[in-house]
Design brief:
By secondary structure, this protein is α/β, with parallel strands linked by helices. 37% of the residues lie in helices and 22% in strands. The longest helix has 16 residues. 44% of the residues are buried. The N terminus is likely disordered. It binds S-adenosylmethionine. The site of S-adenosylmethionine has 20 residues, from helix 3 and strand 3.
Length: 398
Amino acid sequence: MTAPLDDFALAARATPLARFVLDAIEAHDGRITFAEFMALALGHPDHGYYARAGLAWGREGDYETSPEVHPIFGYLWARQIEECWERLGRPSPFAIVEPGAGSGAFAVAYLTWLRARAPECFAAARPVLLDGHPQRVDAQHAALAAAGFDAEHALFDAWCARPDRATGVVISNEFFDALPVYLVTRRDNALHEWYVARDPAEPDALTLVEASPSTADLDAYFARLGLQPGEGARAEVNLAAVEAMRALAAKVERGYILTIDYGYAAKDLYASWRREGTLMAFRRHTPQPDPLLEPGLVDLTAHIDFTSLAIAAGDGWQAAPLVSQAEALTVLGLPEALRAAEARASADAARYVEERRAAETLTDSTGLGRIRVQVLAKDAPLDLACLRSVEAIYGVRQ
Ligand SMILES: C[S@@+](CC[C@H](N)C(=O)[O-])C[C@H]1O[C@@H](n2cnc3c(N)ncnc32)[C@H](O)[C@@H]1O
């Protein structure tokens, strides 16, 4: 059946990538899955959003992630990384693996803090930055080298395919929410999938069409969770995130996986009141109405299902209840950092204002502060500092 969703039935517009999307549609009998479309839009080697040269980050780019707001984000997470090292019995070497490392700003910040404040941990640390795109790997290499850090830089799949395993921490920020998702709708007790096709009404325009699922993995996904999206609602399924978590978890002999990302437990992500899913397109810090428009020039993202990530990690892994980024940063020492900034304010007022603004942005409960943190532990204590309740530490509710 051809049933364009009202808000999705717009033209693709002639971006350099649009031709490749239309060719892929022709080559696959007139339609591709939304996950195939998103993989092209974000990852086409020449014109994909993340694959292209000269991608701008932070305020200069299309959206701002926490490491781009201020290095304090990385300094606070470095304290957590150091605790992981302690709780693992101070191993050496100690792997710090960051998939989807963006501009490298997060790694530069946590390594800067470790070098200055935790030199023994820093000496044991073996940082590994992973990305899906060669341009990003090269840019991350350059950013770390410029900051004086020696790290391993590799493509995600190649690194995961190697048989060796590591003891340490996998830490990622907004990595899983950048992976391609399938779009589905449950109707009349059956799962249907939305595909991307040429719009018959408009040449070179894209639209969504509904048909039966492209893979039995989609039904298996919901069967594993023991739930279904609400009748008639659109929902996303991130099979790539499940695969990525499986691969990462298999690489860890002993240690932690700290996932910082927009997302919910499955029961909340697929709650029956959620009618439109969480898929978003961003350009210049503005949400775009149609994710099919301007492929390759907009960022596409969908919230992740933390329950499926925990299941994917598999045997031997324990999961802690999710906490918000605002809570995690608070217990990791944001208030003390601000008190220190305040004490310096008379000497450097501009820096104080900048740090205070960063703290507000990172903990804003309508923005970055609502990002969730998931801690998974294998053969290691689960009760890390970032999980301790604000009330227990400060004696007051946040
Ligand atoms: C939303 S950005 C986040 C970047 C950075 N972590 C930050 O917080 O600023 C997503 C990152 O994941 C990378 N990425 C996308 N697909 C990937 C894949 N399949 N494997 C590894 N990295 C991928 C992108 O190139 C980018 O670096």
